[in-house]
Amino acid sequence: MKGKMYIGGKWIAADSWFETRNPSDNKIIARFPAGTEKHVDMAVNAARRSFRSWSVMPPPKRGLILQKIAGNLRKDKQRLGKILASEMGKVLPEALGDVQEAIDIFEYMAGEGRRLFGHTTTSELKDKFCMTVRRPVGVVGLITPWNFPIAIPAWKLAPALICGNTVVFKPSSDTPLCAYELVRILVKSGVPSGVVNFVTGPASSVGKRIVTHPGIDGLSFTGSKETGEWIARNAGLKKVGLELGGKNPIIVMDDADLELAVEGILWGAFGTTGQRCTAASRVLVQSGIRKRLVARLAKAANSMNLGSPLLKTTDVGPLINKKAAEKTAMYVDIGKKEGAKIVCGGKGSGNFFRPTIFENVRPEMRIAREEIFGPVLSIIEFKKPEDAIGIANSVEYGLSSSIYTKSISSAFRAIEGIEAGITYVNSSTIGSEVHLPFGGVKKTGHTREAGITGIEEFSYLKTVYVDYSGKLQKAQIDE
Fold first, then answer.
1. Are 171 and 27 in contact (CB under 8 A)?
2. Domain range for 455
3. Percentage of residues in the chain with pLDDT exceeding 90?
4. Is 295 part of any domain?
5. What is the pLDDT of residues 371-421, one digit of tens each?
6. Which of 162, 253, 264, 408 is the most exposed place for a label (fewest CB within 10 A)?
């Protein structure tokens, strides 16, 4: 099939096209327009023209449209899940979960249309009323990755729309079909023309123009640290939200429930084939249980089935493309050269790569510090609990984290001490529920998506004073 871009309420093509392929077998799924800077300019103009009418629509009415989006996503969930599994490569249960996240965030943000709270407070002067009200940022650019190709766009679109912003949306060129299907549902659900504009194409033209465009007031990006740093240097004075990488630790104390820990580690490390910013790429294990934990992990990882994401027997799908598979293989070679020992895996075929576990890993090794974005797990041994916190914090990222322990003292020391936006106790390093903030610290970025913080990302507070004294009052001067 041939997809199209959506600008100003019209589906349009371009002069050239690019292909999206199934990572399992490399077969072409669809072709999409290779948009240009001209198309971004068209999209920004359309969003600017639509901003006034959309932003003055009462937020509860905008919420009704978001409810329709959620309902239409729910009706189409099975079909969308299969498309997502085929285009991105995550196994079908995860693909359906991706769609469910989108349903959840649109439902949650629809309810925010009856909140969008400001504050009232007292004045230091008589006969004067003070409050804050929440206003939309304006035209916002959304640039999203391929690993959650429906969920992450939804996490940005839902709060942006409920706040009254209009949107220029660029998806990853690895998964444009998922984004296209999402936009079609937005249109079907009644999002007015020009409110959401969808431009496909390369980062070098479309992405760059969105970042630098003077007509875009806010920008939300999820992707690599390197691209995020470039955006920070080049976006100008826009309101910028950056959700970048992770090198997430799971701490396993010697009093942990090993069966529970193994289950969580496997899910965190090898779910989505390790292609999550929240992936558990480091396990920090206390010395007394290291051998038992590694043996159990290796046995379980070796039994995982690789194959088509659509098959019920498949545990691990393909990496997104050849470049990702080559990068994973490169890091396996780096780990070997650094002196780490492969416990299992370490080999790939095509875009598939066996779940790989290294032990004898030192915190300073590259495989323990750099984001691999593949199914590679490093086991790091520690003796004292305080050593674990130090190792956890020794990387430049700080997104998700976890500790397995039966000790409330150990749990709370981890909560207090780990430098991360999320800490789980006796669960894996996964993301957030839609009504709670998601984001990190350090070079992960400082954005907080979802929950009330999602509203804050796509709005600003205006302070309002009403003076009914009938005279000019001067704060800090009048007494």
1. no
2. 5-244+445-464
3. 97
4. yes
5. 999 999 999 999 999 899 999 999 999 999 999 999 999 999 999 999 999
6. 408
